[in-house]
């Protein structure tokens, strides 16, 4: 952990020194620099081929992603908190789960989540399969159990048939683990290629001078110390408040982040760097979900992470650049789910 903090501090300080007397590079110079720091989002078909995803598992995963009967109340589905129609998140401070309970953190977007180093704000799930199991069992979210999920799916003939098709050769394919595998396969296809930024990386002139100035500031002010790579973040863990911690309304004292996973003192208030793809669609911001304005979020990051009070023009330019990270949204047809049977577990409060 010490090495990660030192790296973040070192990068922030190095970029801040550069920022003291920023130069204005040519578009081609800036493109070359950006090309070394970021990668474009690939099309879904590329991800499917690279990960060798089964078409049947993807389709089954789509059914399960929208399936509210996986929850104890029969009301909440994966899409409830990770709506593919609203940037892959639910656009409220913290998600509402079983019994109208408010969750402890803002719901991260599911879009492009396949590219993150780990899942959840504290990285407690290594991949999307592991992540899919968490909310189903969390009492504050779907409040179900593996037994409830398996009993529900086995009670519906269409699901039994679909699992057998998606997981051929297995004696009993309707399992909690296979549920998670199928959801992982579907979620891996929820990518957003073709953003104006990605088009610009490829050589097209799709960004304005104002947006390019924002990109230059994003690099030279040190934002890239935590937010780089294919997802413009999501690749490492950093303290919230490298230079100065924000107030308790933004950084709640009781939520110590990755410390709850590692039980290591140096991981207190450490979180996975938020991926910034489609950030303009996923307000409110930060794990607390207490900041609704993207410009305000940028300003907070400047002072808390970089120790630099960005002026209003710098904030506006960086925010303009962040808007170019919105890619083509996945178009998902809502599935018509099979009906329950007399053996399907009834909803419970």
Which features would summarize this protein structure in a list?
single chain; 349 residues; mainly alpha; disordered N terminus
Mind explaining what this structure looks like?
- This protein has 349 residues and is an all-alpha fold.
- Helix content is 40%, strand content 2%.
- It contains 14 helices and two strands, in the order H-H-H-H-H-H-H-H-H-H-H-E-H-E-H-H.
- The chain is globular.
- The protein starts with a helix and ends in a 26-residue tail after the last helix.
- The N terminus is likely disordered.
Write a brief structural summary.
By secondary structure, the chain is an all-alpha fold. Helices cover 40% and strands 2% of the residues.
Q: Helix fraction?
A: 25-40%
Global mean pLDDT: 90
Characterize the overall form. globular
The fraction of residues assigned to DSSP E strands is: under 5%
Strand order of the largest sheet: 1-2
Q: What is the chain-wise order of helices and strands?
A: HHHHHHHHHHHEHEHH
Low-pLDDT ranges: 1-21
Q: Which structural category do the helix and sheet elements fall into?
A: mainly alpha
Count of DSSP-assigned helices: 14
Beginning-to-end CA distance, first to last residue: 41 Å
Quaternary structure state of the chains depicted: single chain
Report the sheet with the most strands, covering strand number, pairing sense and barrel closure: 2 strands, antiparallel
CA radius of gyration is 21 Å
- The strand count comes to 2
């Amino acid at each position: 952990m010490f090495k990660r903090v030192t790296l973040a501090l070192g990068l922030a300080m190095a970029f801040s020194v550069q920022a003291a007397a920023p130069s204005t590079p040519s578009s081609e110079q800036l493109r070359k620099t950006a090309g070394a720091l970021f990668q474009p989002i690939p099309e879904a078909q590329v991800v499917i081929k690279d990960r060798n995803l089964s078409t049947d598992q993807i389709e089954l995963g789509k059914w399960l992603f929208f399936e509210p009967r996986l929850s104890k109340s029969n009301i909440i589905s994966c899409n409830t908190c990770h709506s593919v129609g609203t940037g892959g998140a639910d656009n409220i401070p913290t998600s509402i789960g079983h019994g109208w309970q408010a969750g402890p953190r803002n719901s991260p977007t599911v879009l492009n989540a396949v590219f993150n180093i780990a899942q959840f704000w504290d990285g407690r799930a290594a991949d999307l399969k592991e992540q899919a199991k968490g909310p189903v069992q969390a009492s504050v979210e779907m409040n179900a159990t593996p037994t409830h999920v398996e009993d529900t799916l086995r009670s519906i003939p269409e699901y039994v048939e679909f699992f057998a098709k998606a997981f051929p050769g297995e004696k009993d394919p309707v399992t909690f683990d296979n549920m998670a595998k199928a959801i992982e396969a579907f979620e891996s296809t929820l990518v957003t290629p073709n953003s104006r930024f990605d088009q610009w990386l490829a050589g097209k002139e799709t960004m304005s001078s104002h947006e390019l100035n924002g990109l230059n500031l994003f690099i030279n002010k040190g934002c890239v110390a935590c937010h780089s790579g294919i997802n413009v973040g999501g690749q490492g863990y950093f303290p919230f408040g490298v230079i100065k911690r924000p107030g308790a309304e933004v950084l709640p004292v009781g939520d110590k982040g990755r410390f709850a996973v590692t039980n290591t003192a140096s991981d207190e208030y450490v979180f996975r760097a938020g991926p910034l793809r489609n950030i303009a669609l996923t307000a409110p911001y930060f794990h607390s979900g207490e900041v609704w304005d993207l410009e305000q979020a940028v300003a907070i990051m400047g002072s808390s992470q970089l120790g630099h009070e960005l002026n209003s023009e710098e904030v506006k330019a960086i925010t303009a650049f962040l808007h170019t990270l919105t890619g083509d949204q996945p178009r998902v047809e809502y599935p018509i789910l099979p009906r329950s049977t007399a053996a399907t577990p009834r909803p419970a409060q």
